[in-house]
Design brief:
The complex is a heterodimer of chains A (207) and B (128).
Chain A lengths: L5 H17 L1 H11 L4 H14 L1 H5 L3 H15 L4 H15 L6 H19 L9 H13 L4 H14 L24 H20 L3
Helix pairs in contact in A: 1-3, 1-10, 2-3, 2-10, 3-5, 5-6, 6-7, 7-8, 8-9, 8-10, 9-10
Chain B lengths: L3 E6 L2 H15 L5 E5 L10 H10 L6 E5 L2 H13 L2 H4 L2 E4 L3 H13 L4 H9 L5
Parallel strand pairs in B: 1-2, 1-3, 3-4
Helix pairs in contact in B: 1-5, 2-3, 5-6
Classes of the chains: A mainly alpha (207), B alpha/beta (128).
Amino acid sequence: MMPLTELGLRAMIGTVAKRVIEHTEQLTALDAAIGDGDHGINMKRGVEAVLADIDGLSTKSLSESLKAIGLILVMKVGGASGPLYGTLLMAFGRELCDAPDRAAVTKAFGAAVQAVKARGKSDTGAKTMLDVLVPVLQTLETGGDELAARVRTKAEQSAAATAPMKATRGRASFLGDRSIGHVDPGARSSALMIGAVCDVLEERREP
Amino acid sequence: MNVGIVIVSHSADIARGTVDMVRQMVGDNVPLAWCGGNPEGGLGTNVEAILKAIDLAWSEVGVAILVDLGGAETNSEMAIELLPDDRRNKVVVCNAPIVEGAILAATEASGGASLDDVRRTAEELSPS
């Protein structure tokens, strides 16, 4: 992977933010089913704050930009997803050098996923964003051709696979068995953002 | 100097009401601050507001935070991590019911107890 240029970083931030904003209502509807119905609006508020600073964020190094975006999400998203996504990106940025190869990205993402587990005191199987992040990490670790496409598919499938799970962490856990049958909103927003990153990487064909 | 108390609820009404109860039942010699609700006026918690509340209730002997549900705890822990180095280890989240915990913690704090003792007293209410 080549270092992301300023244009690349700007495309990445813009595409991810737009994807979240386009799905505000879907995320809110998923959250209304098993949570408190604010995930869409919370995420929208967060990415709009990121977009407001896109000029500054896209001229930073990749590492510094990720840390800064993470901090904005921590401050603006609220809920539990603010600190969780903030922790993911801040840890990712902290672990990443400025011109990472695929192995370095995978290693840094692994550390970031670990940080989310610690922040949320959770792991896979609890019907959370970790049920997308961990399978995506495993796909990255496997490597191979067409990686962006496979990561996107894995993220989508993993989010859908949270539907039959029973929530044991987060607000949905209060519902017990009644959480079964709904896709987890955090898993869904994770898959959306990972999918958007994959789209940009594929379009730019950065080897 | 007494330990400060911060109330973090998803509801501004609950947070403000809890502070009212503490003031009335314990008095004014404990630094006290609250936050609750999202920027749109709905339910929620956020790190920015928690950091402000910690600042308002700041005491050199420490600050104990009482929270309600999941996100309040996650956001409070995140806020503590973002504090300057010289403050970070002087703030704790108590694993206790928010109203009862706040009153017990403030009662203990008003007698000049240490941060550890304030937390332990509040947490005596929690099923282990």
